[in-house]
Amino acid sequence: MDYKATLDYLFSQLPMFQRTGPAAYKDTLENTLKLDEYYDHPHRKYRTIHVAGTNGKGSVSHMLTSVLQAAGYKTGLYTSPHLKDFRERIKIDGGVIPESAVVEWVSNFATNNKMWKIQPSFFELTVAMAFDYFAAEEVDVAVVEVGLGGRLDSTNIITPDLSIITNIGLDHTNLLGDTYEKIALEKAGIMKSAVPVIIGIMQKETASVFKEKAKEVGTSVYFSDQEYNVSYSMLALNGKQQLNLQKSGQDVYPDLQLDLLGHYQHKNIPAVLKAIELLNKKDYKISEESLRDGMAHVVSNTGLLGRWQVIGNNPLTVCDTGHNEDGIKSIVKQLENTAYKSLHFIFGTVGDKDPGKVLALLPKHANYYFVKADIARAMDADELAKRAKEFGLNGEVYFSVLEAYNKAQLEADKNDMIFVGGSTFVVAEVLL
């Protein structure tokens, strides 16, 4: 089995949410626990940090990982989904798992599974692979991002040093519940006894859910945005965000720099700062110098892609993986604060969610390029254009994401802006 055949096995022969949506979702941890036992509980051999949330969990995971690397810790990072290559999901110190390691691990599983006959989903098997790889490589700590929800997510077998829930939004409501409270309760399922929990954003609908769950399991809960905030930011000459930060009204970490350019990162930074504070109380050694270094080099340290990522200039060309209502609100707000002559908006989404709430938020003055990403879950571009017209959004339908991207580059003036988004899968197709 070579790498191509291995990916075919993972993507085609296992239930995969990224490809098929809710049909791949499991409502039990049975397979995960069996795999964990078979591989001798690898996650117990290193420290972990668990990160959940509707939006921002990927950014927070990468920022924390970068800071830990800067502090000298050999750091594993497990995230999902990937953009270009499956191996992006499993990294150590910013380096992706080698193809040979993926091939060997999957081949061994496929051979042994003939005897013990577990039928895992793609995500269940990938989590097991990541945890086993981190143990084999003897990482000091692994930052583990929840895939979906929390309570029933395959990552939820770990007992971390710290848990983080960034925020709660109405996403995956068919699986997690149709209210903020129900979704919060699912994500609160990662809380564990004596493991402190950081909530990134205090929301009136969910604060009591987290407080009650923390009391139930016997742990402390911290609302980081009630302590830390970004009071001011500007674009520095080196192209990074330069931030003024406060803790309880007092200036801290003056002129901290961040190489992630999305304004929405201001909502994520308080959780990262509170996490560093609590980790240092748990005998981690993370200096202010390491914090500054890590935050200034998140992209180069971890390889994070698709967060208000500038992929071209003249015209300014940006892609962003924000795809739900809250994510799109943040994107639209930043578009409103970006200078351009005309906006060319390449947009696609998935077909297993109603796009109405997102379409209602999009700028009506843009020139739209409606696309269908090359996955089964993607919404048909003609149907998307039809729905968009109901909201006053007009444009053309394109055969592929790249066709739309090339057309936008031809039509855009150097003072225009091209934005690519609506779906992780659309963004993946424009990143070379």
Description:
This protein has 432 residues and is α/β, with parallel strands linked by helices. The chain folds into two domains: 3-302, 3-Layer(aba) Sandwich (UDP-N-acetylmuramoyl-L-alanine:D-glutamate ligase); 309-430, Mur ligase, C-terminal domain (Protein-Tyrosine Phosphatase, Chain A, Alpha-Beta Complex). 39% of the residues lie in helices and 18% in strands. The chain contains 17 helices and 17 strands. It has an eight-stranded mixed β-sheet with strand order 4-3-2-5-1-6-7-8, with helices on both faces. Strands 12-13-17-14-15-16 form a six-stranded mixed β-sheet. A three-stranded antiparallel β-sheet has the order 9-10-11. Helix 4 (57-70) packs across helix 10. The longest helix is centred in the N-terminal third of the chain and has 18 residues, at 99-116. It is globular. GO terms for molecular function: ATP binding; dihydrofolate synthase activity; metal ion binding; tetrahydrofolylpolyglutamate synthase activity. One of its GO terms (biological process) is folic acid biosynthetic process.
Report the count of strand segments: 17
CATH class of the largest domain: Alpha Beta
Strand order of the largest sheet: 4-3-2-5-1-6-7-8
Full CATH superfamily name of the largest domain: Mur-like, catalytic domain
Quick take:
By secondary structure, the protein is of the alpha/beta class. It has helices at residues 3-12, 17-20, 30-38, 57-70, 99-116, 122-136, 173-176, 180-187, 207-217, 265-281, 288-296, 298-302, 325-336, 356-359, 381-389, 401-411, 424-430, and strands at residues 47-52, 75-78, 90-92, 95-96, 141-145, 162-165, 197-199, 221-223, 228-235, 241-247, 250-258, 309-312, 316-319, 343-347, 367-370, 395-397, 417-421. Strands 4-3-2-5-1-6-7-8 form an 8-stranded mixed sheet, with helices on both faces.
